[in-house]
TrEMBL record:
InterPro entries for this protein: DUF1697
Listed Gene3D superfamilies: SP0830-like domains
Phylogenetic placement of the source organism: Bacteria, Bacillati, Actinomycetota, Actinomycetes, Kitasatosporales
Organism domain of life: Bacteria
Protein name as annotated: DUF1697 domain-containing protein
Amino acid sequence: MMMYAALLRGINVSGHKKIPMAELRTLLTELGHGDVRTHLQSGNAVFSSESDDQNALAAELEHAIAQRFGFDVPCLVRDGGYLAAVVDACPFPAAELQARELHVTYFDQPVDAARFAPLNAAAFLPEEFRLGERVLYLHAPGGLGGSKLAAALSRPTLIKGLVATSRNWNTVTRLAEMTGGTT
């Protein structure tokens, strides 16, 4: 059995696309997954499965959510080893930063630097970003709420064709822990 985290995009935000976490846990259990737990109210679930196909697990969950709740929710599913690797590969000094300063955006596919080349990254300093394996690390010293770089990085022209969902550093590390990736 593999441990996975399901990262749901854009639920329970400003009263839109409401999915109670108890119902998400029930849904994952009904899909045949074990060890189901949720973290926070923003679409983070951990579960075990015999499947090793993360894309199929995500598609199955997306379909089940659409059937149960009547709206589409993009989902990414990542295993504990991948989540631990994301934590370990952080290019910023996470231990020296407040969690609100560091965020990770997960992508459904690899992203190369050429996609973000039109962005003048120097214009946003001291905010910075770095790409990793299907992730983007964002260091925003003032937090995400006022981050001009975060707004620029989420422009439709830059992320067109991608499923992307972001988490703060506390959530990133907690999901890695919950899936057995790190402690």
